[in-house]
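step 3/5: co-fold with 3-amino-D-alanine
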Amino acid sequence: MKIAIVGATGAVGQQMLQCLEERNFDCDLKLLASARSKGKVFSYRGKDVVVEELNEHSFDDVDYALGATENDLTKKWMPWAQKNNVIVVDNSSAFRLDPDVPLVIPEINPEDIAKNHGLIANPNCATIIALVALNGLNKRYKIKRIICSTYQAVSGAGVKGIKDLENQSKDPSIPSQAFQYQIAYNLIPQIGSFDDLGISKEEWKMQNEGRKIWHNDDLLVNCTCVRVPIYRSHSESITIECEEEVDVKEAQEIVAKTEGCVLKDDPKNGIYPMPLDTTNQDLVYVGRIRKDISDLTGHSLIVFCCGDQIRKGAATNAVQILEKLVK
Ligand code: 2RA
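step 4/5: write tokens
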């Protein structure tokens, strides 16, 4: 079985390679990237793999592909893959809302994988981290509305974002490559362009994608997405309004048993999720669970969660989908 990683030298592509290696995924691997990266050598299961330049014949001998390129490039190479009946798991946002394309978090809607017509989309990182944290609570309390503030790591903007933070942490005068403003010692309340409602592209994703993943077209979400000077983990402060009355102790027990989650909730003893703790591992940490005192109906709960954006927010989720595909 031959698997291609498309965009193999970017932050997500490199993490996909590492995830496959960690899982000792039995396959021949093809690494595809731009001409700039052609000839670079990486190791996979003890063998050297040389990066090849992506072109229309790249998929002639490929069975599955993991997509780790931006939207425009993804739209260019997807037909090349589909012409060869390659099954693609794509991390870009290009096809996420296409009705014929399953949008999957394996812990939540694995049954949707089988509905694919050759393409499965990976949700946005902030969506994955929030919905994994909330999935058990949604099953028990039926979430109607989500109000979410995200604190998104620079890795969401790829290698350039990581480099900006590295450089500016030493010398803040170094101009940003990935952001409009200095990111070190700063916060930027913009991820993606704004529409006429003043909502950014990133902020629409959680509602649009959450509705598709949870099969709930009535889900209402209001997001404020902020870029923060953290390397790899996204953090999210989330208020959920539910159909059922919520109970904090029960909610803690539910989260502790929710697949993909770790309960970190003993604030008086300094136990709560922090981005440094979730960096470079695949679980979503959830804590600070408490009733929303501003909702007198008792139907609202607040949680705080953290997850590694490059791993569970992108690469690991895609590899988990691939594992279910090839089983
Ligand atoms: C970001 N979620 O954090 C977007 C894309 N990875 O920039």
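step 5/5: annotate
Residues 124-126, 152, 156-157, 191, 202 surround 3-amino-D-alanine (CB under 6 Å).
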